[in-house]
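Handout, tutorial session.
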Amino acid sequence: MDSETFEKSRLYQLDKSTFSFWSGLYSEIEGTLILLFGGIPYLWRLSGRFCGYAGFGPEYEITQSLVFLLLATLFSALTGLPWSLYNTFVIEEKHGFNQQTLGFFMKDAVKKFIVTQCILLPVSSLLLYIIKIGGDYFFIYAWLFTLVVSLVLVTIYADYIAPLFDKFTPLPEGKLKQEIEIMAKSIDFPLTKVYVVEGSKRSSHSNAYFYGFFKNKRIVLFDTLLEEYSVLNKDILEESGMEPRKDGEGDSEEIKAKVKNKKQGCKNEEVLAVLGHELGHWKLGHTVKNIIISQMNSFLCFFLFAVLIGRKELFAAFGFYTSQPTLIGLLIIFQFIFSPYNEVLSFCLTVLSRRFEFQADAFAKKLGKAKDLYSALIKLNKDNLGFPVSDWLFSMWHYSHPPLLERLQALENSKQD
């Protein structure tokens, strides 16, 4: 990494860290004030008044719970909007990542809120109803219901929800698609389709992922990941009056400087190496293991919720002296009582995630992609202004992916071989 890129990365990570500190501090202060001044019982009473205006009395607890959720998520969206605006149009804009206009951003925010409510409210009403009628073993039925919902959402997200926000197009026929299909077949990955998502209209950050169950797997590539496909590269070439050229063609210093400064993305071989890493997660069962861990944790939480939900002192501590609404019980127990446990669990999952990343890198090695993955990681880190140096203790607690230098070191021996 040259000194200029190193300095850009340092400044970007400094800005992001500062933003994370202040936004996190604000969230903690906001949450504390809400608890101290009785924000939760006040919002519950306000929800009851709105229900009363519509002719629903206190016996319609589920209806009141849905109004509470709507008001709570609306409050959260409005208080978080300034921070999101600052992150997008100040920090990301300053460092060259933001591709959105203010109009696009606001339209996107409204659309996200509406889609969230369309999913959250029906699911929550059914969950509350199951808890109400489930008897002594309601926690089993509630867990099974959330399991089914999560699997359905994972299945339909990329086909029906994500296209509401981004444009997905099939990867054109050509060498890259052919090589992706060959690699998938070599490891028995049941690939059905390969899509390119137009992520460049939001940000110049890049990504790739796969989704689907059983024999219906699909791969999604961000256009910013593909050097030959990225709109950002084309825009820079057009603005500079340059025509696409082969590597090394032309000897103008000005042209060389412009080519050097353009968004790189990855070459086809490097894209295949990145996909080799992602498919490694599937082949090694990481996705299934994460689902199992998540559902075991979910079952444990519902079981403990069943044990604690009858304790009136928990509700009284949060300002509910005469009633014990089920939704409020879920909020108190899952968000506050489980908070220490959630921190420990989060750390354990971070450690496991880093282990999975090393294993996926090792899988890409076995596919003969070590050299290309090595160069792809460097390019992606540079394109995303990742800082290559990390404090071991900080990264161990916060980073779900190992720092770049650790991953490169693990790949180095195979690369030399």
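The second record follows below. Compare its token runs with those of the first.
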Amino acid sequence: MACRTVTPQLFASSSHPIHRVRPVAAVPRSNAAPQAIRTGRGKFAAAAITLDDYLPMRSTEVKNRTSTSDITCVRLITAVKTPYLPDGRFDLEAYDSLINMQIEGGAEGVIVGGTTGEGHLMSWDEHIMLIGHTVNCFGTRIKVIGNTGSNSTREAVHATEQGFAVGMHAALHINPYYGKTSTEGLISHFEAVLPMGPTIIYNVPSRSGQDITPEVIEAVSGSPNLAGVKECVGHDRVKCYTDKGITIWSGNDDECHDSRWKFGATGVISVASNLVPGLMHSIMYKGENATLNEKLLPLMKWLFCQPNPIALNTALAQLGVARPVFRLPYVPLPLEKRIEFVRFVEAIGRENFVGQKEAQVLDDDDFVLISRY
């Protein structure tokens, strides 16, 4: 593939370095010695308790802004794509257009900076800015769920604190990945972030390398801030939770129809709805529809022919709703897969897809690959 690789100049000085910002909260002075609190899973450091007592997220106003029940009733949530300009910065004009198309198509929530939105390729500055931008522009029309999870509990706590401070309605939290922990560690990790506001826990063992077992979810299910679980393990796991009254969103587009109508899932957190939000809304709201589901299954499977979000990024570029710009390490699908997508658009109907332009195959050299931004 003859894609162009662009390395834009980074501007930094000794007074304005480019880095991932993690501000440290100031600790108010007190003459009273801080006391550590012992739990069944160990003893928290006194300093950590002192900091926790002064977390900005103790704000009553923030906590009253969104209730967990406002999130648990949402059926169609789109894991929205983040589009880029040719120099690798966010293309906010294209992003705003994508969000508007989601709202018009019936999506009730968006995940900002998730796997599909490439949050792992963002600095925390970019990440929190995009959450705040989405809230400011669309927060009265759609639920904004920020992916503020991390494999570092400290980082997850800090990012979640910032996300709620800029107005997100709920947080999405994955389990610590790569540097995996124990079952007790998972429970403690989620207990550290749940007090901040409505939270969806995300279980995707194929990416995290570790299953969040029912033992973990049941241990934290008593938290009033647990909105539910984005579950990617399958129908049996979905039913295990729905039988116990735990809210579940399917994390697999190709399983979401049956999860919704046969196994009790509330809805789906979808990649496919980036492309066909109206049809995904129909699957979630208009009763069992095996015909429509079967019509969309080839497209859903195509979206995961390579690791997400490669296919989605390629498709949105082919539809002309996002520039053909990729932040590495993602690269576009090969020519034969792009031709296949155009055929899907023809078979399903162009009117069902986002955007107004006809789907194009695009040449390899139409794509721009960004290594520094």
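Points raised in discussion: Residues 71-287 form a domain with the TIM Barrel fold (CATH 3.20.20.70).
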